[in-house]
Design goal:
Radius of gyration: 16 Å
Number of strands: 8
Structural class: alpha+beta
Order of helices and strands: HEHHEHEEEEEE
Number of helices: 4
Largest sheet: 3 strands, mixed
Helix content: 25-40%
Shape: globular
């Protein structure tokens, strides 16, 4: 799922209702990844802090669920060579791959022409 800084309260409710329809109310661990330093700075954002994110997840999922968060502002701000110049990535894609008993997270620059994924450091996840 993707929650942008411009997401409205109604859209947020729809996102979480859909997650529950897909079985989200049975998920014990949630992993939340994003460039939060940048997103929290947007005045109209519903989520202005990690506390806001936790509150939203607690409202929509069972008490036994655990939430883990990782800020990828640094990865999104990294500069890459593009057409002879160094440019900030700007947009970032995140993917998760489920192995037998674990998850692997990776990111890449958001351009379609970029196909190389870089593993994310799982020690950056913090419990909410």
């Amino acid at each position: 799922m993707h929650v942008s800084p411009g997401t409205t309260e109604e859209e947020m409710d729809t996102i979480f209702a859909n997650l529950n329809l897909m079985g989200g109310d049975n998920v014990l661990d949630w992993y939340i990844i994003g460039p939060f330093d940048e997103h929290f700075a947007v005045g109209s954002a519903l989520w202005r802090s990690k506390k806001d994110i936790k509150k939203t997840f607690r409202q929509h999922f069972p008490k036994k669920a655990r939430f883990h968060i990782m800020d990828v502002t640094a990865e999104r701000s990294a500069k890459v060579l593009f057409e002879g110049n160094m440019w900030p990535i700007g947009a970032i894609d995140i993917r998760v791959v489920r192995n037998s008993f674990s998850l692997a997270f990776a990111y890449k620059e958001g351009r379609l022409s970029v196909t190389t994924w870089t593993p994310l450091d799982l020690t950056k996840f913090k419990r909410l």
